[in-house]
Amino acid sequence: MAEPARIPSLAGATQWLNSEPLGPADLRGHVVLVDFWTLTCINWLRTEPYIRAWAQAYRDDGLVVLGVHTPEFNFERDLELIRQAVKERGIEYPVAVDSDYAVWTAFDNHYWPALYFADSAGVIRDQHFGEGRYEQSERLIQRLLGIERDLVTPAAVGVEAQADWDQLQTPETYLGYGRGEHFVSPRGVAFGERHAYEIPDHLRFNYWALGGEWTVGREYALVNEVGGSIAFRFHARDTHLVLSAGARDPIPFRVLVDGQAPGSSHGVDIDEDGQGVLREGRLYQLFREHDEVRERTLQITFLEPGAEAYVFTFG
Fold first, then answer.
1. N or C: which terminal CB in the chain sees fewer CB atoms within 10 Å?
2. Which ranges constitute the DSSP H helices of the chain?
3. Pairwise CA distance, residues 304 & 274, whole Å
């Protein structure tokens, strides 16, 4: 019979936040929940209210929550951005900064978010990838701790609010050529080269286009001139875009929905007129439908060059 999987070495972490470095021996005697995350991932952001609530509700019962931040994009290796995300999300439990993917590899992990549940002997008893299954996961934590009580009811607001799954019809869409799809600017993509793009008069549902001069790289699309824009035809309550300013100063932008300012349907990162500012690399919420969810066209225009656009996500 094969040996049960155990919590592997955490020695490959490049930094630790909220804790001194930990290893399997330090965690022995505790029920452990390992949470793989990356700061721009909307799927992780929507699970974090539960992770945070479990960490608080069960720490006196012997639960240790251990976050492992493994970056999806290169800019997410910036330690100050990780620190800022930890602060903004109210994360008080230990976080292993896994910028070299050493802990990710030790767990043979492939997903964000990913949860691994270990008993007090360090044996991994279960795992779960992605959102959902919250009641089952919390009941498992209770069983491993040997307790039974009412489940937590976490508060989830802003980008942490659960998606409107019944209305969500548009998938996550990457803008770099490495994973990009559904791009419909005429003449296609010029890989890694400065190129002038046009937005068609009519966008098909779930397709997107660039306007102005851009350089489309493997991870992101970089706007090279004032007025560069992205248009996307979608159907969802929420629209988010992962952005980074690179080394540039803050970059102002404006969002229009069906050619109009979003008004009361503005996301948390823009105002009613659609004005926003890109200051640091993270996920920006551009739109949250205030009325009936329906097919819409969102256009974001950058008022300075230098913005890096990575991926649209929806909720």
1. N
2. 24-27, 42-58, 79-88, 102-107, 134-145
3. 16
Compute the distance between CA of residue 40 and CA of residue 55 in angstroms, rounded to an integer.
21
Report the b/e string of 251-280 with b at 16+ CB within 10 A.
bebbbbbeeebbeebbbebbeeebebebee
For the question of whether the overall pTM of this predicted structure is more than 0.70, the answer is yes
Interval 266-281: pLDDT, tens: 999 999 999 999 999 9
**Which residues make beta-bridge pairs with 149?**
none
Domain that holds residue 236: 173-314
Q: Which of 130, 160, 190 is the last residue of a domain?
A: 160
**Residue that terminates a domain, selected from 98, 129, 160:** 160
Rounded CA-CA distance 65/14 in Å is 19
pLDDT tens track for 289-304? 999 999 999 999 999 9
As a whole number of angstroms, the distance between CA 54 and CA 44 comes to: 15
User: How many domains in the chain?
Assistant: 2
